[in-house]
Amino acid sequence: MKKLRVLVVGLGNVGRGVLLSLSNNDDMELAGVVSRTPERVKKELPGVAVVKADDIAGIKALNADVAILCGGSKNDLPLQGPQFASIINTVDSFDHHDRIPEYFAAMDTAAKASGKVSVISTGWDPGVFSLERVLANAFIPGAVAKGFYGLGEKGGLSMGHSDALRTIPGVKDARQYTHAVPEAIEAVRAGKAVNFKAGDLHTRECFVVLEDGADAASIEEQIKSMPGYFAPYKTTVNFVTEEELKSRCAGFPHDGCVIASGVTGAGNGAVVEYHCRWGSNPEATANILVAHARAVGRLASEGRSGAFTILDIPASYFSRHSREDLLKKFM
Amino acid sequence: MKKLRVLVVGLGNVGRGVLLSLSNNDDMELAGVVSRTPERVKKELPGVAVVKADDIAGIKALNADVAILCGGSKNDLPLQGPQFASIINTVDSFDHHDRIPEYFAAMDTAAKASGKVSVISTGWDPGVFSLERVLANAFIPGAVAKGFYGLGEKGGLSMGHSDALRTIPGVKDARQYTHAVPEAIEAVRAGKAVNFKAGDLHTRECFVVLEDGADAASIEEQIKSMPGYFAPYKTTVNFVTEEELKSRCAGFPHDGCVIASGVTGAGNGAVVEYHCRWGSNPEATANILVAHARAVGRLASEGRSGAFTILDIPASYFSRHSREDLLKKFM
């Protein structure tokens, strides 16, 4: 059977995770990498076709079946998404929850015009957690699902919040770990109708390396008052050396869960929980993107076009296994 | 919008759960109940249309959109499934895992011939757990998902094993609780490649009321040596009075989880777990069947026909919510 040819757009942590993931999915192969800095990528990946991001003819010549867009949601995807959707099938992990309807509409328009398939906003949240929220609500009508992040002792590394810390003048490097509030988890599990604010569900722990001569007290104050990112949360700031940061904050671990609690017919309790724990958050996202690339191939082969989310795709489309195997071994 | 008219076939615990569930899903309504004993059901449900199981004309006259088949997998569904699939869209919870491929083929043939949609083998296992097994394996290639049942202190009530106990002469009444083995859960979570046998994953606890004069020792021996049901497991048998059975064994609680453990790209650990805890097992199954009835309506409106499983259906089809709401509130 012909392998699905996958184009990786953007070689950051997620893009590198996609390369690794492709080698664990023997029905797919790498068609090439699209980068803003092709010379850098060619050195890192000898033997791989590398094309500049604005070289449309070069991208088309790679003859890929699907492009996995690994750019960021803030600056890359809003422009890049519709551009790619107008020339190739795409998968992306656009994760600004509030702006998903707007992004869906833009991608749907572009993909319908080109006759391509675009799966948007997948990964573990949005993505698998979105799916679990919908299933929980469908199977337990009235249940409201809550998501929690950073369940383990060390918490979960938030890339977005780490980036936010690094924008503060005087901060040389930083990491942010999110911690779920155990009492909030227990309240949701018990079905208590608490009207949670964001700060009730999570706390934030920062590890910050200062530039020489930076004012620690002022930086701590700037962090704790940063709107959206830290102001709504109980936030602790730890100033550490570069060496301490390196040893304490290695890797990209993250974990989380979705919990929904409600009742069935005669008032009997019903609780469902989905948990995931990842040694590498970007590799987890990459694995999920790659499984969605398989689904894109299937949708495209059916002549479908337009934007899709994980909610629009049957689970079997993500799987390497045949219908016969699924019925026999997975049902 | 026109409500989906649902026919309930068989008024046991699951059928009663479906009636309750329909009242919590305002896009559906009860079309009627099909029963082998319509007079009994008419007394229990005054005002509800009740039709005898072999009255095809009567069933058709109820003008239902979908029939939820609540019969058992051993004696009812293998015959009843294809019969109903040849006249109406159906949903069922056929749960003999080994025989699902064969049942799927029979239902697919019947439903394709009649142009109807038949969703088979849904509930929480097979059903939601099947879905979670497929997703875990797709997102963590190579990960093998294991299911566990009876996680809480009291364990989970197994109807099938309780029925098996009651077939033994001298047993007046009985309940069987399944317990997951905590060490096995930890081994799966840790990704240990243990070659588990059934008896390594679960133990079985029986509560048995004897008939007057029955021989306890002989019955205990018969239980513990029953092939398939008890012989492969560490089984304990408690003889109790009818009163003790009533107070210890009220209701139909059950719970379980699917755990899959593996690695992502560079060998980083990855674990996903789906847990559910139900105060009423038959009500849980009923709720899931009802959400699938909604999906059947959607598939039928698209002109689809044949047999489907939960693996073939997008999550959005189970949901009461519009695409706009799903994008805005659930993604």
Account of the 3D structure:
Two copies of one chain form a homodimer. Chain A is α/β, with parallel strands linked by helices. Chain A folds into two domains: 170 residues, 3-Layer(aba) Sandwich (Rossmann fold), CATH 3.40.50; 153 residues, 2-Layer Sandwich (Dihydrodipicolinate Reductase, domain 2), CATH 3.30.360.10. In chain A, helix 4 links the parallel strand 4 and strand 5. In chain A, helix 1 crosses helix 12 and helix 4 runs parallel beside helix 5. The relative contact order of chain A is 0.15. The mean pLDDT of chain A is 95. At the A-B interface, helix 1, helix 5, helix 6, strand 13 and helix 12 of A face helix 1, helix 5, helix 6, strand 13 and helix 12 of B.
Task: Please specify the SSE layout and strand pairing.
Two copies of one chain form a homodimer.
Chain A: E1 4-9, H1 13-22, E2 28-35, H2 38-44, E3 50-52, H3 56-61, E4 66-69, H4 77-85, E5 89-92, H5 100-114, E6 117-119, H6 128-139, E7 144-149, E8 156-157, H7 159-166, E9 171-180, H8 182-189, H9 198-201, E10 202-210, H10 216-224, E11 235-239, H11 242-248, E12 254-264, E13 268-278, H12 281-301, E14 306-308, H13 323-330
Parallel strand pairs in A: 1-2, 1-4, 2-3, 4-5, 5-6, 6-14, 10-11
Antiparallel strand pairs in A: 7-12, 8-9, 9-10, 12-13
How are strands sequenced across the largest beta sheet of chain A? 3-2-1-4-5-6-14
Helical content of chain A stands at 25-40%
| Most extensive chain-chain interface | A-B, 70 and 70 residues
* Global mean pLDDT of chain A: 95
CATH class of the largest domain in chain A: Alpha Beta
The computed structural class of chain A is alpha/beta
Strand % of chain A is 25-35%
CATH superfamily of the largest domain in chain A: NAD(P)-binding Rossmann-like Domain
The radius of gyration over CA of chain A amounts to 21 Å
Main beta sheet of chain A: strand number and arrangement? 7 strands, parallel
CATH topology grouping of the largest domain in chain A? Rossmann fold
Q: What is the domain tally of chain A? A: 2
Uncertain stretches of 5 or more adjacent residues of chain A: none
The SSE order of chain A reads EHEHEHEHEHEHEEHEHHEHEHEEHEH
DSSP summary: helix tally of chain A:
13
